[in-house]
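Quick one - inputs below.
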Amino acid sequence: MQQQISVITLGIDDLSRSRRFYTEGFGWTPVFENAEIVFYQMNGLMLGTWLKPGLTTDSGVVPSGTGGFALAHNVPAQADVEPAIEQLVKAGGAVVRKADAPEHGGFRGYVSDPDGHLWEIAWNPAWTIDAQGHVTFGV
Amino acid sequence: MQQQISVITLGIDDLSRSRRFYTEGFGWTPVFENAEIVFYQMNGLMLGTWLKPGLTTDSGVVPSGTGGFALAHNVPAQADVEPAIEQLVKAGGAVVRKADAPEHGGFRGYVSDPDGHLWEIAWNPAWTIDAQGHVTFGV
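Output:
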């Protein structure tokens, strides 16, 4: 199968609260929205924020806990990490880990979105991000 | 901030069990691996499968439950959905929802990976997937 992820769908409790986080915090523009889901066109894939009953009915899985996963948004420079985290917090996010330098290099902090989904905001000098936002592995 | 997700990191319990699911089930090739993480270069972003203690130490969040999220892999044709699910099950996945047609169109089923992370395998005729695997929203 093609080495491809088409969608990340996050279950949410409140559409407008979540929309505020993604549009005002990250500054992203929805490509589609209705009364139960908002889609954002991302870098080669879609991000969907879907009211939990919709995702539960569709998948048959009742959401619980944190799930043990994280999404990351990489920024161009180390100095961009903390302002990005501050902006996300202003839009309804919560700091989970203040930004610092991990052993494996770079600089990062963690924020949870209003539904508890984990976002790492990172500067990773080894990974290339092109103008279209496509991220390429590097060491 | 750029409309971009750099990484999806999934917390896992067993590296070789997870690796088998992604390499033999999806047929994907790692771009990097060591004793605690495997990275796959995806369509404009990275997928990382990281032993849970690493992700927990890095983020400060102890994984629990299902988390209320799903990843999706879209296939080119309706007839590709069921064989893909069968292949994932052979590689250690479990069927969560047998493939059928949702109200919003297309055809899809759900499989959980060996660590319980949810994958929707879908045919969505409205969304374009190019040769590089970049997925574009369409209605």
